[in-house]
Write a sequence for this structure.
């Protein structure tokens, strides 16, 4: 019974969810009101994250690519699936990968360039690619 | 032993923590707080309210839950419908029968496997809230013809004040079907609450036409609300690259996809002949370039929060915010973008019976906006 209790305690004391500081999306629109926002959730430094697929998915893909590339159309690379993602990654020459070229040349995402909006995310992706895109 | 069980139950219930303030915003002299109500699930596609403290919501992967909005506690409902969870499909919208106390039905839309193909379906079942269980699911409409694609299913549900149900269906990536009256794809459909076809539907006497059709020429309509103040139906839909729309829906009207649009192909080229208006086709009351990817639409008429009153609220997936615009003059008017700091893909937005604003996210969270007392 003590083991059961310890297991439950362990499950309930997991680390809090990771939140990543980002620059709010900017596009052409005229705001009606001056809105002052104060974020109350914790933020973390991306540079401290382990360079693996799960963190790349969380930091880069989830907020920028998911609407079309997470389990979506069959003709698009599924960035929420490591094997599918690796079809657009060249591990021998990662910065010549289709993934990197598409993002760094601003072809995707369609409405903004990732490098100008989230340079820290781009840097994290680049570092992960250079390490051979580990799972 | 009893103590251990009580401790275990107490700890497990904390998996769904009590509402927590995560963000604040101030507009002129009014201050608002955004609270996280629940966490830890997968994509929450839709939410609807039984009362101020009790809601039902769908998880795209195929589960339905009850939510206590005061405690954040979530309960799993037994016997959900069987859905095809793939691509953009899965368990999608949920709606509560307008006269639930006498007719305890829950309606859902979902993607359904039909042989080797798939399509959008509307189903309903009686629910027993005491047993937290559904009875038997009954398909009210299975959109035809089924397709091989796994995207653009729609779909949202709304009720009017005359016992009709409106149900949107996306064009499933087969754009020309949106212009065909022989297919349910790319349409707003109208049914009676039991799934039968109203005798005054506009195409009941048209040979070859789907008799449920109310309006057509839609791409992927994933937001709908009936404005009981003006008896008006509004629908929002995803455009291609740019060209998301809000439309005021009238029967038999053609909303233009793919003949006219303010969007472009993902390649950057024009859609079709590149036209954005044409005789006989309706103009949106609002369009967005670039796309915000609206996945829900709420007409806010409550007096609870004056900042939202008489405005549309749309949950945006692509630009990750809650889009707020005035209903009147929305075509040329400004817009407010809320919750940008949360970095969430917002799926559904609803008002509770008392007028608090709730929204759900792809990350499996439910948030609430309420005004801070002065």
């Amino acid at each position: 019974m003590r083991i059961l209790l310890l297991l439950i305690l362990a499950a309930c004391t997991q680390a809090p969810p990771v939140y990543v500081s980002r620059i709010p999306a900017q596009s052409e629109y005229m705001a009606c009101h001056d809105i002052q926002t104060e974020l109350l959730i914790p933020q973390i430094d991306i540079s401290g994250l382990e360079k693996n697929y799960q963190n790349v998915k969380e930091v880069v893909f989830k907020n920028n690519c998911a609407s079309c590339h997470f389990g979506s159309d069959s003709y698009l690379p599924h960035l929420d699936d490591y094997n599918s993602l690796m079809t657009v990654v060249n591990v021998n020459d990662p910065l010549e990968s289709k993934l990197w070229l598409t993002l760094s040349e601003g072809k995707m995402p369609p409405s903004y360039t990732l490098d100008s909006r989230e340079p820290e995310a781009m840097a994290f992706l680049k570092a992960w690619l250079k390490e051979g895109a580990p799972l | 032993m009893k103590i251990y069980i009580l401790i275990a139950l107490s700890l497990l219930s904390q998996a769904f923590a009590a509402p927590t303030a995560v963000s604040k915003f101030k507009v002129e002299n009014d201050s608002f707080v955004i609270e996280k109500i629940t966490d830890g699930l997968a994509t929450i596609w839709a939410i609807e309210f039984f009362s101020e403290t009790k809601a039902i919501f769908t998880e795209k992967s195929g589960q339905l839950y009850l939510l206590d909005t005061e405690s954040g506690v979530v309960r799993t409902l037994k016997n959900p419908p069987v859905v095809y969870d793939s691509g953009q499909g899965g368990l999608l919208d949920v709606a509560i029968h307008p006269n639930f106390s006498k007719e305890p039905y829950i309606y859902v839309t979902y993607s359904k496997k039909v042989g080797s193909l798939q399509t959008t379906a509307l189903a309903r079942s009686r629910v027993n809230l005491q047993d937290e269980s559904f009875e038997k699911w009954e398909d009210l409409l299975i959109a035809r013809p089924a397709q091989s694609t796994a995207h653009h299913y729609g779909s949202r549900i709304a009720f009017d004040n005359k016992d009709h149900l409106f149900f949107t269906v996306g064009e499933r990536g087969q754009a020309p079907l949106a212009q065909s009256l022989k297919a349910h794809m790319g349409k707003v459909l109208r049914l009676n609450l039991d799934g039968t076809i109203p005798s005054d539907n506009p195409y009941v006497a048209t040979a070859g036409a789907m008799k449920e059709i109310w309006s057509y020429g839609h791409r992927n309509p994933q937001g709908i609300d009936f404005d009981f103040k003006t008896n008006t139906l509004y629908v929002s839909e995803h455009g291609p690259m740019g060209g998301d729309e809000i439309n005021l829906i009238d029967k038999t009207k053609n909303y233009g996809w793919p003949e006219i649009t303010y969007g472009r192909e993902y390649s950057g080229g024009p859609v079709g002949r590149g036209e954005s208006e044409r005789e006989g086709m309706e103009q949106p009351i609002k369009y967005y370039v670039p796309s915000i990817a609206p996945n829900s639409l709420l007409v806010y008429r409550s007096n609870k929060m004056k900042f939202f009153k008489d405005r549309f609220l749309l949950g945006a997936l692509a630009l990750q915010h809650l889009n707020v615009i005035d209903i009147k003059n929305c075509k040329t008017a400004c817009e407010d973008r809320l919750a940008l700091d949360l970095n969430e893909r917002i799926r559904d937005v609803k008002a509770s019976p008392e007028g608090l604003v709730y929204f759900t996210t792809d990350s499996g969270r439910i948030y609430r906006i309420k005004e801070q007392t002065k």
About this structure: The longest strand of chain A covers residues 35-39.
